[in-house]
Amino acid sequence: MYEDQTGFLAALGMIPLLFFIGVYCYFSFCQMRMAQKIGLNDCAWWAWIPIVGLFLLFKMASKPWWWFFLCLVPLVNIVVFAVLWYEAAKACGVAPFWGILVLVPVLNFVALAVMAFSGTPARPAPPYQTPQPRQPANV
3-class SS at 129? Predict the structure, then answer.
């Protein structure tokens, strides 16, 4: 009378998993494109690694790495993420309010697409200073 429906339930459980994998790939791809647009080509692949992608956001917003600890504090993290995305939007050459819209569910899909794929020129990344070789002391 009762048929085994484990296969059906397992297939039904895969739908949310595939949805979340698709959303993760979309967000990672948009963040990677934003980093390339700013000129951070050497570390744009960081967007695909879960926690390291946050440090890429720090680089895009020109903020120090220790802001990570501010992201761990409840309520402070909302302000920190607002500042980070605001600065990242300015770096991408779009209106800064697009960065704030990243914090709003559903609108974040549109905001990320505008920041990543809009044709506006971004500000160039600060030039990397190569360390100068030390001169031997004349003894």
Answer: coil
Cα separation of 125 and 83, whole Å?
A: 18
Average pLDDT of the residues of the chain? 85
Phi, psi of 43 (to 5 degrees): -125, 20
CA distances from 3 to 12, 15, 29, 136 (A): 16, 22, 43, 82
Beta-carbon contacts of 61 under 8 Å, excluding residues fewer than 6 positions away, are 83, 84, 85, 86, 87, 88, 91
Separation of alpha carbons 26 and 111, rounded Å: 12
| Beta strand extents in the chain (DSSP E only) | none
Instruction: Please calculate the CA angle 12-13-19 and round it to the nearest 5 degrees.
Output: 100
Contact assessment for residue 100 and residue 86, using Cβ atoms and an 8 Å cutoff:
yes
- Smallest CA-to-CA distance from 112 within 16, 37, 51, 59 is with 37
Q: Is the pLDDT of residue 134 over 90?
A: no
The reply to whether the predicted model has a pTM over 0.70 is yes
List the helix and strand counts (H, then E) for the chain.
Answer: 6, 0
pLDDT per residue over 43-78, tens digit each? 889 999 999 999 999 999 988 988 899 989 999 999
